[in-house]
Each structure stands twice: as C-alpha cells, then as structure tokens.
TrEMBL record:
It is found in: Secreted. Pfam families: PA (PF02225). Keywords: Glycoprotein, Secreted, Signal. GO terms for cellular component: extracellular region. Plays a role in the modulation of physical activity and adiposity. This is Protease-associated domain-containing protein 1. Residues 42-126 form the PA domain. It comes from the Eukaryota. It comes from Nothoprocta pentlandii.
C-alpha cells in the first residue's frame, strides 16, 4: 500500500469556503512548488475539463487553474494549463460526492512532460469551491498554497466540514 503524499492549500476568499483543503501531487509528472504563494487566484477553467483551448485562458496566466477530471488525460490537462501560463493545476474529481478517495494521477502513454505542479482534489471539495464562486458571482477564489499544516495547532485547523480528516 502506497502512503499518499499530501499538499495543503487554504482558500482565503470567498469567506464561506475559507478552509484548508488537502490535495495529492501527480505521481510521475509535473513540477513541485518551489515558491509559497500567499495570495494567488484559483481560476476555474472554461471549459471545466480543460482538454483544449480555454475561453478564459487569459485569466489563468500566472495563476492556478481549477479543472475537472474527465475528457482527456491528467497530463493533457496539465499541459493545457501550462501552455496558458498557469503556475499550477488542481484537478478535481468529477465525482462530486467523492469526499475520501484520492486518485493517483500518472503519466499517460505519450512521451510528453509537464513542468508545472499538478494536484488531485476530492470531487466534493472541487464542487464546493466552484459552487461558492457561482453563488457569489466571482471569477476565481484567492488561495494560499502550499500551507504547512504542521505549524497550525489542531484546534485552529479549518478543514471543510464535509471532509473527515
């Protein structure tokens, strides 16, 4: 059994989802976070699966993209975001009720590579972030990534109420 490596990020805005979320890095492709971003935009890709040209690619430049699983490989999505100048991609499961099962993102059968970090997010978390942005009419969330959770006292850890830690 492989123990998952986790990476954490915190949504700073909108306030109704101001939680620390858990994600898992891609197993054998993508870069690593060499920089901690105190405030960076998490921009939902349009279209959500990010398998080709993006309608909102200009907003992904120098930001982090939130994309949805499905339609093409994890690596293809990562490359689309990288080509649009994104600093990283967070790929949410397309099973909106998934609140506990992390999928291992692996290289596809092509010989392509990607340099930006790629993270997998539980479907429930991705859904709740997108839903909050829609309810507030916002084009993106503001996040801090990565977050060192070992320095945060347990009683102060603001994890999503729908997730079991």
């Amino acid at each position: 059994l492989r123990i998952h490596e986790y990476l954490y990020f915190q949504v700073l805005s909108p306030g109704d989802i101001r939680y620390i979320f858990t994600a898992t890095p891609a197993k054998d492709f993508g870069g690593v976070f060499n920089t901690r971003y105190e405030q960076i935009h998490l921009v939902p890709a349009e279209p959500p699966e990010a398998c080709g040209e993006l309608r909102n690619g200009v907003f992904i430049q120098d930001q982090i993209a939130l994309v949805e699983r499905g339609g093409c490989s994890f690596l293809s999505k990562t490359r689309v975001i990288q080509e649009h100048g994104g600093r990283a991609v967070i790929i949410a499961d397309n099973a909106y009720d998934n609140d506990s099962f992390y999928i291992e993102m692996i290289q596809d059968s092509t010989r392509r590579t990607a340099d930006i970090p790629a993270l997998f997010l539980l479907g429930r978390d991705g859904y709740m972030i997108r839903r909050s942005l829609e309810q507030h009419g916002l084009p993106w969330a503001v996040i801090s990534i990565p977050v060192n959770v070992t320095s945060i006292p347990t009683y102060e850890m603001m994890q999503p109420p729908w997730t079991f830690w």
